[in-house]
Design brief:
Layout lengths: L9 H4 L4 H12 L7 E2 L2 E2 L6 E4 L11 E4 L1 H19 L14
Antiparallel strand pairs: 1-2, 3-4
């Protein structure tokens, strides 16, 4: 069963001070509350994860938000599915058997 960090190299892409400075700062700034918006309303459940709003390599605090585990899993799953479909190759059209090229 996959999930979590299984098979991921993402942890190695994070800056050295992610766990000591950046992540604690964002959680405290957001008051340990999920900032995900669901139908325009902030979720507000207890947050224990920090998420990149845009580029996953942009670790500036203004580009990070606190999320609860459920909202983070939903967002990550959606992004993974979008990425998979973006690179999925379609079967090339078959040549007509009667055409000579």
């Amino acid at each position: 069963m996959s999930g979590g960090w299984a098979g991921s190299n993402r942890r190695h892409e994070l800056p050295a001070d992610w766990y000591t400075r950046i992540r604690p700062f964002v959680l405290q700034r957001d008051e340990y509350r999920c900032r995900n918006r669901i139908d325009g309303v902030v979720c507000g459940r207890p947050a224990n994860q920090v998420d990149h709003i845009g580029d996953r390599h942009d670790h500036r605090p203004e580009m990070l938000q606190a999320l609860c585990a459920e909202c983070h899993a939903i967002k990550s799953s959606r992004q993974g599915n979008e990425a998979r479909w973006a690179v999925r190759t379609k079967r090339p059209p078959e040549r007509h058997p009667g055409l000579v090229i």
